[in-house]
Structures
1.
Amino acid sequence: MRQEAREVLLTRQGIGGIASASLASFGLLSAAFQVALAVWPDMARHDVAILTSLAGSCLMAGIIHAWPKIDTSHHYRYPDFTIQIKCGDLLNEQENVIIGFTDTFDTDIHDGVVINPSSIQGQFERKYYSQDTSRLDLEIQEKLQDIPIASRETAIAKRRGKLDRYPIGTTIVLTNNDTRFYAVAYGFMRNDLRVSCSVDALWQSLTSAWDAVRTNGGLEPVAIPIIGSELARVGSLDRTSLLKMIALSFVASSRQEIVSRRLTIVIHPKDRQSVNLVDAEKFLKSL
């Protein structure tokens, strides 16, 4: 509640939303008041009380209109698709899912040194592979067999994890119980096992992911987390900016050729305070 109040009352976007909605309400209510005054002239004796009530009602209507919703969406007509923003658990979504991997497609989560088990990838491995990384590795290797290796590290330089690097943006499709998981290599796994990602690399990865969804998804709905907000360290962008970047990339790609009928951007509840939904809603409407 406090987060929503700050977004509405203490940000330029929130105050602007309140002002525009309040002015619209004032126009409607003042017109109704003029009609009522013509019918009942004696109401003019209570002009101060009426004006005070009118102003209060307009302000309240503006705040209600501007108050951010946990689940919001915007429909685009050309082409026909919808972008939805919601709080929840990405892996509980009843649709295909995009998951961020590194350029080495490392999967080792057993002690959290290579891949953090609390990351989306780590949760995915625990939920669908019961931490059986050998089975996942076989599937990944099968999907990567026709993709040229970009470079290869030595065991001395990179002491843990996989050594083969694939181009940033490489996207493979893993299937589990009829759900497609698009594993996109958006982060660079450094030899010290820290992950980094630039804004350019993230945009390139998103574009590649949309291409994979377009090719394999049959316009089915797809969900994506706020990629780049955790371990990949896109330090120049906050979560709201990353969310906007995901939406902008999807719209740009869809206007070249439709990707999916619905994209759901899922915000984990613990990250809700880091996302300005008022700003995000306005951005969706501006695209």
Note: The mean pLDDT is 84.
2.
Amino acid sequence: MGNNPDRGRTITTVLGRRLGGELLHMRESCGLRQMQAAEALTASVTKVAKIERGQVPMRDPDVRALCHLYGQNDEVVIGKLLALAKADRERRKAHGWWNQYPQLQSMVEYVALEEIATNIRTWQLAIVPGLLQTPDYARALAVGNGHWEDPDEIEPFVESRMARQARLDGESPLELWAVVHEAALRQLVGGRDVMRAQLEHLLGLARRPNVKLQVLPYLAGAHPGMTSAFTIVSFTEPGALDVVHVDTASSTLWLESNTDADHHNGLFERLTRLSLAQRNSVRLIDGILKEM
């Protein structure tokens, strides 16, 4: 038998932890113990503990059984949990194209979720979002950030970023809503030629029905997104048990609670109100392009 690198260690996923956290909160809210949940599932307490930690996938009947036990009869809420459970199962069994790119490193989990997401909303302070980048722009970013010790790894990284953009095409394309600060559009990443091509690319993408692009102008002044960029990943309609992805200088951070999701959804809504409408955002991008 071949060696299985996953054997002997516990695997969790962002979606599994999100679902498990919801079920844990429901159980504690109605004052029940894990033993009672185990009896409802005809399972062990150990399995219930693993469910609540996001360590095992959940079947739809088990989700419904726990909801019934916890007194949750709202079909909308149950439907959101079922959608999350389905997405988690798909994530666990996925062996997608991204696994051939070790250069993705900490982005593997994010890319896998991006592949099964239905809606992504992203706020970017300093760069064009990855799904909207040209190859030359992505390459210039990779060179500029000094992250790659081996220059030969940069090109596969660029290829993987371009492969991600296939989610914007097809019969059921990803719905993308991007809010980008004006600074990101004026920063000369790769030089004027690279930025001109990048801005032209953005103008073309903004015409797609599944892409909404807004620019937060300098004139907006102080705003609630000044501290960090973030991305909200949804698996049904926006707000349905979202997870939030935050990139820092040294790590990737997942925010998985309702409180975190609600907070960032509120931040995103305020940023969209402060930003230019898409029509005026396109005019601003075109103006910056002409200046170059």
Note: DSSP finds twelve helices and six strands in the chain.
